[in-house]
Design a protein that fits this description.
mainly alpha, 285 residues, globular
């Protein structure tokens, strides 16, 4: 179950990142985050009411609030790092986020077998290579490296926090709802500050209606992935769940290849193959 849910997490996160990347070509990144997360919050709110999730309210929700506070900060740091570039350095470096939940799992006493340790190492290397690392002559600003490390720490922290936010299915719905509401509040505040500084909140002509289903998909895929990761981490080793859930850059790269006809570089194809090998080692170990 852990492997299945963690791989589903990677699939949905990878597709959500792909959709979000398409949207940010025409709208500010903050707007994409706020709109997509608002749609997700509305849908989750309806689910919470329908399932009676409010009865699960308790101290664990503070983990969801913390994840909601950290997530937008990590995302903004990541976008700023990408803007400074080069993307071939920033994107693979951000995959270091997997180190946080893996470290938490080891600290809590998890001890994967030798085959699983090998799978973790192979999968992490594969994900880094699948991001298309820029290996030659890439001038990198120190600020870009710092922002990338901040985003990686933030993403990894969200991984760890969502695992602790609930212990039941209805509680999971409530914690995801609280996390999304917090995301929207933090993102909305940042968007307001950006507008005051003269940056546009909407693309020219406003948000096209044709793009609204994509916004909804990005938001819903993100919450579904987060929920599946929480289930995976609660029902199996966090070390395994975190690594398998971190394969989403491979999905994003393959989606770009399939839908946008972007050619995979040799290093990306090799990375995808290593990620698959690492997945098999983890699943069979």
């Amino acid at each position: 179950m852990t492997a299945l849910f963690a791989l589903a997490t990677s699939l949905l996160w990878g597709l959500a990142d792909f959709g979000g990347g398409l949207l940010t070509r025409r709208a500010p990144a903050l707007t994409v985050v706020v709109v997509s997360q608002s749609m997700a919050a509305v849908a989750l709110g309806a689910v919470v009411v329908a399932t009676g999730g409010w009865s699960e309210a308790g101290p664990r929700l503070w983990f969801a609030v913390a994840a909601g506070l950290v997530g937008p900060v990590a995302l903004l740091a990541f976008y700023q790092a990408l803007a400074l570039g080069p993307m071939g350095v920033v994107s693979p470096l951000a995959t270091l986020s997997v180190a946080v939940p893996v470290s938490v799992g080891l600290f809590l006493g998890e001890r994967p077998g030798l085959v699983q340790f090998a799978g973790i190492a192979v999968a992490v290397v594969g994900v880094v290579l699948a991001g298309g690392p820029q290996l030659r002559g890439a001038p990198v600003q120190r600020r870009a490296i710092l922002l990338t490390l901040v985003s990686a720490l933030g993403f990894g922290t969200v991984f760890a926090l969502v695992t602790e936010a609930s212990t039941t299915v209805t509680g999971l719905f409530l914690s995801l709802f609280v996390q999304r509401v917090t995301n929207v509040a933090v993102g909305g505040a940042a968007l307001r500050v950006a507008v005051r500084r003269g940056r546009p909140a909407l693309p020219e002509g406003g948000l096209p209606r044709a793009a609204l289903p994509t916004y909804a998909f990005v938001g819903l895929a993100d919450i579904a992935a987060t929920g599946m990761y929480a289930v995976a981490a609660q029902h199996g080793p966090v070390t395994v769940a975190a690594v398998l859930a971190s394969l989403y850059p491979v999905v994003t790269a393959l989606a770009a290849r399939g839908f946008l006809r972007e050619r995979l570089r040799a290093v990306q194809a090799a990375g995808a193959g290593l990620a698959l090998l690492g997945t098999l080692l983890l699943a069979t170990g």
